[in-house]
Specification:
The complex is a heterotrimer of chains A (about 325), B (about 280) and C (about 325). Chain B has 13 helices and no strands. Chain B is mostly helical and about 280 residues long.
Chain lengths: ~325, ~280, ~325
């Protein structure tokens, strides 16, 4: 386990360096470089000067990279748009995005696993076929389109606003109403963001479960006289869940991609919306920092998933 | 090819959803090919006096805010969605097969370096990466296709690598090597044709993803640029009128959904039919 | 005559696959008496494992189905039991061990856990008592330092140790019948002998009956009391071990015996049985063995021969049994 950990951490460190190099290459090697793209007569010379300083464009290429890294970590990278430190801008909003993603992730895991297990248990039944079709619908539906349909539907049905983190007018609301208002505003985008992952994960759970119940040890458990249900939920599920743990890391990129669109649709003040606004404003320090941070989040997610896997699987735990 | 065509069809046919998916894809291809013949109107022709008309016999799917015929625009839109999907996947296939083949065939440090690179690329949330790069290069149909292609090859390369790793130990490859055949020839003639089946499956599923990504980019204003009639554009332009002209939102979305769904169902059907391990289960 | 522990009457099990019906077991009859070791012998695919699984009703349904027959265990037909009652039989009255000790134990639970599960289920023991019994069982199957090993996961044990743990698990509730499906096939030759000896020893101590399923006549000769030879889903010859090894009355049995390499004899070559095991979806007419049989006459193709009594407890399904062998 210790050697596994050490190897994994070293690997992660190398990947981290790779992520930073690629992030940096993308902005600096874009045709014309980052500054020329933003050459806009409306931008004041002061900001251009600031940008030049920010990127150390007078220095040799390899130095530019190290200076960028240094500035990224010391928080001295500034936004093109308003000159505020990038990390500060991100810090303000990252909590909102994490909240949204956490809720989405919770929805995914708490629904997908039972759904997949159920589907596998009743393989080829009517319900399984329906679930399978639903899964494919979920994988194929454009999230923003669904969001619009739902906004259209809820506004027509309930006449209740869904955009933002809360309703604009909350005066006269009791404490309970304010909480319900917040949950309402949180749940809708989280649910839509969860659909893709939910579909994918439940499909995965189903095939994992089907794979496991064909194993010899399932037959052994039955031969011992363990009741069918226990065989399935104790001996089967425990094994089927092992690979599912690792998917936790793989879900993060999709969720973050979804955040960009969903936060824009629902006017949710998170980093997804910040990223989109930064892309629109060609605010590259912000864009690249968010790219790097999200990549690191994905990396961490994968690392945690590997650790969980190590803990859950005795074959790895005792090595 | 290693699989037998006959048994492949036998198993594929039984998956009715996959067959339906294939049928819909063929229809979409047909529409894309004949859009200029079957479209009742010029997709770019504006007519402000007829703007935002709801579906009728004159305009099957209504008109948009500039009075353009939505049905005609949708027909032409199929061309864009399919081209973006297919070209992007073709690019990603070329890169993915190349990287996977090199890593799997040569192993050792080539494998270590390339797979580490794959790991790094997989860490970036692809949609945001695509959005960033498209924004940098400037949105256009070509850029969208290329950028989706160069950011989505990692899955393919992993598959190809795994296939190569197992195939290169097989007798016919060893024999070819013993005969002094050049690596390039061994890879192209002996290993690649045998590893195409799983690549074919991922490619089909990747088309579905690419079509979705294009729609998402259009929605954010970084897809194929208006006035080109992509499904994503019709939808995005229509969202302003969502409460007055539902047809601008509903129909293009349905078209995207149907196309993506069909590619997903087809891909899954192909996977089941090509995987001999799954066959006995039915 | 004593009453048998288990009486199998015209058991027929089939699998309904996409490509056709597999007649895995066809009209099989045999009985097992308390404390005896019956060996079911045959090539792979002859239906011996399916017979074993059918006894515990562990055939996957679908595609499998027990079409007909009676499984009288202490006079009670197992096929007539509710699933809940059957669960009480499995692991308690009748246990089973399998070929692959690598894959037959659940990788995420300790072996102690897996042994205790049966004890807690059938004997209503509390955790502490079940653990004590599990350690006792591990000791009995000669696993060194059982109080430590009980907390091992399967992957931490060698193949032989795992199979011992499997045996401990199967015997923990002191079943009256143990079905052992190729229990030593996956093990190294030296370990095979050890495990086999252990099985025989414990069988002697506990007095249970064993149904040993194997393709290895060497194993049979070491421990079986009676033998039933299966071919293409049918029993083709059955009798006491001396009769089968000494005066076999079926050409297939003879073929099987002649295909074992023997050290003493200076034979020039092994007599392998010519031809292939028939496709269970497309069995030959008449006697299922006739295409491979050197004694074949025209009558063999016409009707399936019944089991002819050679004597009181020796039977052969060959119309030329008198001439044979």
């Amino acid at each position: 386990m210790t050697s596994f950990l050490l190897r994994r951490i070293l690997q992660m460190f190398i990947t981290l360096i790779g992520i930073s190099i690629i992030s940096w290459l993308i902005i600096t090697t874009a045709p014309g470089g980052p500054i020329s793209l933003t050459m806009d007569p409306k931008i004041s010379p002061k900001i251009i000067e600031q940008m030049m300083k920010n990127y150390d464009l007078d220095k040799p290429v390899y130095q530019q990279y190290f200076l960028w890294i240094k500035k990224l970590f010391t928080g001295r990278l500034y936004s093109f748009k308003d000159g505020r430190p990038v990390l500060e801008k991100i810090w303000e909003r990252i909590g909102n995005t994490l909240l949204l993603n956490l809720v989405a992730m919770t929805i995914i895991f708490s629904l997908a696993i039972p759904l997949g297990v159920f589907s596998a248990r009743k393989q080829y039944s009517m319900m399984d076929r329906l679930t399978t079709f639903g899964v494919f619908l979920g994988l194929s539906i454009p999230g923003f389109w669904l969001a619009y349909l739902i906004i259209l539907g809820t506004v027509e049905l309930f006449g209740y606003p869904v955009l933002g983190m809360r309703s604009f007018v909350t005066e006269g609301f009791g404490a309970g109403e304010i909480v319900m208002d917040r949950i309402w505003h949180l749940l809708l985008p989280a649910m839509i963001m969860a659909i893709h992952g939910l579909a994918g994960l439940s499909r995965y759970t189903r095939s994992s479960m089907l794979e496991v119940i064909r194993q010899d040890y399932i037959r052994t458990a039955k031969a011992k006289g363990v009741p069918e249900e226990t065989v399935y939920y104790k001996h089967g599920l425990r094994n089927a869940l092992l690979p599912i743990v690792t998917l936790f890391g793989f879900l993060i990129p999709g969720l973050i991609g979804g955040s960009i669109i969903m936060e824009s649709v629902f006017a949710w003040p998170g980093i997804g919306r910040l990223a989109y606004q930064a892309v629109l404003a060609r605010d590259y320090p912000v864009v690249m920092t968010i790219n790097t941070i999200t990549a690191v989040l994905v990396l961490l997610g994968n690392f945690i998933a590997d650790l969980l896997y190590g803990v859950a699987d005795p074959r790895i735990r005792y090595q | 090819m290693e699989f037998q065509t006959k048994s492949f069809w036998h198993y594929f046919k039984q998956n009715r959803l996959a067959v339906a998916g294939l049928a819909i894809i063929l229809v979409v291809f047909f529409i894309a090919g004949t859009a200029s013949l079957i479209a009742p109107y010029d997709p770019g022709k504006t007519n402000v006096s007829k703007k935002l008309k709801s579906p009728s016999s004159e305009h099957l799917l209504g008109t948009d805010q500039l009075g353009r015929d939505v049905f005609s625009r949708m027909l032409y839109g199929s061309r864009i969605s399919l081209s973006v999907g297919l070209v992007a996947v073709a690019i990603s296939l070329v890169i993915g097969v190349f990287v996977g083949a090199i890593a799997g065939y040569y192993g050792r440090w080539a494998d270590a370096v390339l797979m580490r690179f794959v790991d790094i690329m997989l860490c970036f949330p692809s949609f945001f990466l695509i959005l960033t790069v498209v924004a940098l290069l400037g949105p256009s149909m070509l850029n969208v296709m290329v950028v989706i292609g160069i950011t989505s090859w990692m899955g393919t390369s992993r598959f190809v690598r795994a296939e190569f790793l197992s195939l290169r130990e097989r007798d016919f490859v060893q024999a070819a090597r013993a005969l002094g055949m050049k690596d390039r020839r061994i890879i192209l003639r002996h290993i690649l044709p045998n590893s195409l089946a799983p690549v074919f499956v991922t490619a089909t599923l990747d088309v579905a993803t690419a079509v979705l990504v294009e729609a998402g980019l259009s929605f954010l204003g970084f897809g194929v640029q208006p006035p080109a009639p992509s499904w994503g554009n019709i939808l995005t332009e229509g969202r302003t009128y969502i409460f007055d002209a539902w047809w601008l939102t509903v129909f293009p979305g349905l078209a995207i959904l149907m196309t993506v769904l069909s590619f997903n169902l087809l891909g899954e059907g192909l996977r089941d039919a090509l995987d001999p391990r799954l066959r006995g289960r039915r | 005559m004593k009453t048998p522990l288990l009486e199998v009457r015209s058991l027929t099990t089939q699998f309904f696959t996409e490509d056709g019906v597999v007649r895995a077991v066809e009209d099989v009859n045999f009985e097992i008496h308390p404390g005896e070791i019956l060996s079911l012998v045959g090539e792979s695919g002859c239906g011996k494992s399916v017979t074993g699984l059918s006894l515990l009703r562990l055939i996957p349904i679908p595609p499998g189905k027990i079409m007909s027959g009676e499984l009288l265990f202490e006079g009670r037909d197992l096929l007539g039991l509710e699933e809940r009652e059957m669960e009480r039989v499995r692991g308690n009255d009748i246990s089973m061990i399998f070929q692959e000790p690598m894959t037959s134990l659940n990788p995420v639970f300790t072996i102690g856990n897996q042994i205790m599960e049966a004890l807690q289920l059938h004997q209503n023991l509390d955790k502490k008592e079940a653990r004590r019994r599990a350690i006792e069982m591990l000791d009995r199957v000669k696993i060194p330092s059982p109080e430590v090993r009980i907390d091992s996961y399967p992957h931490q044990l060698s193949g032989g140790m795992r199979q011992r743990a499997m045996i401990a698990m199967a015997l923990s509730c002191q079943p009256k019948l143990l079905i052992a499906d190729e229990p030593t096939t996956a093990l190294d030759v030296t370990i095979q002998a050890q495990v086999l000896r252990l099985l025989k020893e414990i069988q002697g101590e506990m007095g249970m009956a064993v149904m040993l399923i194997t393709h290895d006549l060497g194993v049979v000769s070491e421990i079986a009391d009676r033998v039933a030879v299966m071919y293409a889903g049918r029993i083709v010859e059955s009798g006491p071990i001396e009769a089968i090894f000494g005066e076999m009355r079926h050409p297939y049995t003879r073929g099987l015996l002649e295909s074992i390499p023997q050290l003493e004899e200076k034979k020039k070559r092994l007599n392998a049985i010519p031809g292939q095991v028939p496709n269970p979806m497309d069995l030959p007419t008449g006697c299922k063995f006739h295409p491979r049989c050197h004694l074949m006459i025209d009558d063999c193709k016409k009707e399936e021969p019944p089991l002819y009594p050679v004597n009181k407890n020796h039977f052969s399904r060959c119309i030329r049994w008198k001439e044979c062998c």
